[in-house]
Amino acid sequence: MFILEQLLNGLQLGVMLFLMSAGLTLVFGIMRVINLAHGSFYMLGAYVAATVTMHSGSFLLGMLAALPAAGLAGILVELIVLRRLYQRDHLDQVLATFGLIFFFNELTRMIWGRQPLFMEVPSWLAGSVELLPGIRYPVYRLAILLVGVVVALFLYLLFSRTRLGMRIRAGATNRETVAALGVNIRLLYTLVFGLGTMLAGLAGMMAGPILAVEAGMGDSILILTFVVIVIGGIGSVRGALVGAILVGLVDTLARAFLPGLLRLVLTTAAADRAGAAIASMSVYIFMALFLALRPAGLFPVSES
Amino acid sequence: MHRSAAVMVCLLLLPLAMAGAAEPVKIGMITTLSTRAGYLGEEIRDGFRLAVELGGGRLGGVPVKLLVADDGRSPGKGRRIAERFIRRDHVRILTGLVFSNVALAVVPLAVRRNVLVVSPNAGPSLLAGEGCSSNFFNVSWQTDTLSEALGRYATERGYDRVFLIAPNYVAGKDNIAGFKRYFRGTIAGEVYTALGQADYAAEIAALRRAKPDAVYFFLPGGMGINFLKQYAQAGLQGVIPLMGPAATDGRLLGAVGEAAVGVINSAQWNSDFDNPANRRFVTAFRQKYGRTPTLFSSQGYDAALLIGSALRAVAGDVTRTDALRAALEKADFQSVRGRFRFGRNHFPVQDYYIRQVVKTGDGSLVNRLRVRVFTDHGDAYADRCPMP
Amino acid sequence: MTRATVTAPGWPVLLFAGCGILFLLVLPPVLELSGHQYLLSLATRALIYALAASSLNLILGYGGMVSLGHAAFMGIGAYVVGILSHQAAGSGLLSPAAVQGAGPVSALMAWPAAVALAMLFALVTGVVSLRTRGMHFIMITLAFAQMVYFFFISLESYGGSDGMVLASRDRLPGIDLGDDRVFYYLCLGLLLLFLAFVHRLVNARFGRVLVGCRENEKRLQVLGFATFGYRLLAYCLAGGAAGLAGALLAEQGGYVSPAMLHWTRSGELMVMVLLGGTGTLAGPVLGAFVLLFLEEYLALYTEHWMVILGPVLVLAVLFARGGLYPMLAGHGRER
Fold this sequence. Notes:
Number of strands of chain C: 2
Radius of gyration of chain C: 20 Å
Number of domains of chain C: 1
Oligomer: heterotrimer
Largest interface: B-C, 52 and 52 residues
Distance between the termini of chain C: 6 Å
Largest sheet of chain A: 2 strands, antiparallel
CATH class of chain A: Mainly Alpha
Number of domains of chain A: 1
Structural class of chain C: mainly alpha
Shape of chain C: globular
Strand order of the largest sheet of chain C: 1-2
CATH architecture of chain A: Orthogonal Bundle
Number of helices of chain A: 11
Order of helices and strands of chain A: HHHHEEHHHHHHH
């Protein structure tokens, strides 16, 4: 029972990571641009959702505001900064987007102040349900799982069934051909970037009621997101999904069971501390092992 | 070529233009304004500034100039700011310290140069015990003591099995140790989380399974916000009592909302304390900043009053370090918390209270005073302090 | 895409280097005369970061290995010094008497140990990470750095997350490390020594192979070069130099903490290299000085200094292509 609940927790963390990494991996796979500032759009989504929800009292309105806000902000950033970086080194991209992190974190502090914002679970998603006898699980976390499934499905349909999706996929593998076919590649890039940041905004908004809405909240999840897309294979949305769930499970299960396992061989106090220390490293150990065995990740996308 | 040289020269000459003659006594405030914990420093700074403002730009009748710098919660940066304050601005009194790690880096550097440090928050065990210094004063509490108060309270309430949760770092372990020092029941479980952890689903599942009588948590700042929200969503709010040291100051309540109702916490002060100094402080604070002061702003305010009392004693001559130190030791000021004095390790000997978060008639959340658990309580490390 | 100029330096480069060295040599007396001694410690830190950034530049600029875990080497170096000092003298907090003067640990032992351990770590992690490329390399170096970061946080006997204060600087025969001015010149000397070493290295066959690996590793392998060994050696050398920088930083600040290993530190080192000029000798030095002094002065003017620094970095990328040094030295990046 306990294991089942922890598996569910891991899955749910994985879904959050998926929402983040889907956008990032798209942007990387198609434009070949590293965007360290991806976490800033996550933060923006959370802040806008919290603000609108607070003033209107409606979670749905908050959601309606947060998604376009994150998407539009992404489009703006693409038009002003990132567009100029597509032809550059990854290094230039890292430097510029590192600067953007500074900027956005401080800007949030200036606009919203230093105090974390309040955002609560809407009443229709509050409480918990009994999934199986003995397992009560918060409804809101189930809703997150559902959103993850919907987004995965949406992306699948987008890429396999729509013209736009096919163009995007084609753009990823061969941008010259697509351009030659008369597709406005610049517009396409802007749209993809906006879609990616919108997904990040969605993740931030969903995180709002369970996590602290504060400046810098995107930084810690950013690193995990990178871990996910590297494990999944950079540029692969499918890889992002599998990678996210793997990372979510590893992190949660290590935290839940490592101290207990170590207690078999160590004293309780030592096991608790060693367990906590190793659990915090678990994701990185997992990634290093993984990359040592499969240097290109789960679903490598061929580099053009 | 010339350009590059010019740029370098300019960079170095900039401060020349910024030097100026100084009349008032300079007080250096090294505090944490950025990072996620930035609001703590802001509270302390606002409390301190209020005291200066109420005195018409003076503390203890002496004109002062407050220099504020953000340490970004980084020990190295704190040290560099201390260096700058001491060597460039010739500051003789430092204050503002929020976090233990910054304090442990800054305090040795300052006290060796005979600069006095008045900490409005940070009070690590090392500075209270073996590493105490005649030049260091703490006006808040030694890190463990708030948890000691909760340990005593849990014992008095008759909680038999308590589940403990804290981050895997120094202050986390100090707090757990403090709780255990006064708790006589059994520990139903003990979990150390990663510092800055966001998701507590795994830990909450574990504590639910342990079926404790109460949960003790020490998760400062954003970690506490996350935990409280998730605890309530897991359906445990009001089912298993939750207690944490200084866990729910006013600003945190704003971020957590009703998920915080019922949380038991410990403090040496509450905004509804009925003494003249506190009434004046709370009223003025609300007027100036439009919000209710928190524990941290009360500590910033008290630090300012304490420094003011010492400045008055030396008539603003901060070069008389010995006299200044002696005046600080007397703690001759009206603390907003009521009775206050220093123990021989220059940490407070004071009363500690249990508060609980309640929802008032108008829907706002406040900390209500419940019971006093310690009277004239010092800290556990004072005995190890070699100071006479 | 040729960033590194592996050629004999022309006269503008030599002139720039001469001016730079002269400037660094006269800096301490100038600061003293103008009453800004407190800036000396900032300048010393800039020298130390310059050393670390230069070591990163060796692998990043010349070898094309973009590491986002370089702070781990610095952290290891710093902790070696910290732990040795802690073992010999106890916590710096507890011995307020030992203000300055000779410490109990010899720098001749501590610093080489710091370098050796950092190199060892580079060797072990390099064997794994150098198998990967591009983004994957960035992430795997980050992963190793995060592991070290969490390791030191859980190292309770040495301060855990709080870190530790050093009782005093180590002792070095014939040199008083406690004197800030002496320490400055020592750091300057070590930096110049390392730069000279890098200069020799990249102009030797080793450097040509390294740069070749960046451009086209396959070709070199076909020609019979064991490129992996070259890259691994460069990675270890860079790690060792960063370890030395970490040791110096611990001595200079008298403080060691896990914050030195946070991933944003690695990011800052990268910023220094890029800001100054990747694959140039003087670039990282310039970058370190500009970034540290910029931070310092912006923080004096506004507590929201990051809102200015961020766009400055973006503008630097967009308009100072190839970094400040090529721009200042009067030749843009050759393509």
